[in-house]
Amino acid sequence: MNFETIVFYVFAALTVFAALRVITSRNPVHAVLFLVLAFCSMAGIWILLEAEFLAIALVLVYVGAVMVLFLFVVMMLDIHLAQLREGFWRWLPFGAVLAGLMVFEMSWVLGSSDVSGGKAVIKHAADYSNTKELGRLIYTEYVYPFEIAAVILLVAMVAAIALTSRRRKDAKSQVVPEQIAVRKADRLRLIRMPSEKHAQEKIDSTAEAAR
Fold first, then answer.
1. 137-174: per-residue pLDDT in tens?
2. Rounded Cα–Cα distance for residues 161 and 155 (Å)
3. Residue 26 CB contacts under 8 Å (≥ 6 apart), including other chains
4. How far is the C-alpha of 28 from the C-alpha of 77, rounded, in Å?
5. Contact, 64 vs 45, CB < 8 A?
6. Global pTM?
């Protein structure tokens, strides 16, 4: 057993442990932190597979952005922990059956002749770039699935904005055509007022007349 195999098993054990703690932690904040640990462990496995770009994207996008957002949302929400723990034992048999099915599928794949045939790991050259190879595959062989995924994400983004930005009765908004078509007479009114000197003379004359 070489050093890379030992590191792989360490990262794999950390990932499995963190994934179990995500679904068994009673505190939602602790569950999110364990999910961050699972993502970091998976990033280490990606690096062992010479997929540096995927590892960096996993850390920057999910750990650095998505999970931080989840953490702030969970900390800001008033979550009742008692209600979360009520449905755990009810769904435990279904989760155990699903986990067993996944373990069976992974064991079947790892025990197949294509995987366990003793094939040597391909060693790339020193100037091999995983990012360059990934970009070449995306924009040549998988360009249409990539574009379809981008369109689906765009539609989902527009739908989310349309569902959340509902017009309220008490909301104030600008109407650009009305602002452009406004006239000076509608907004400005000139009033003739006496100057300060004439106003003072009128006050003095009124005072003298009162005497």
1. 888 999 999 999 999 999 998 988 887 766 666 667 77
2. 10
3. 81, 84, 85
4. 10
5. no
6. 0.57
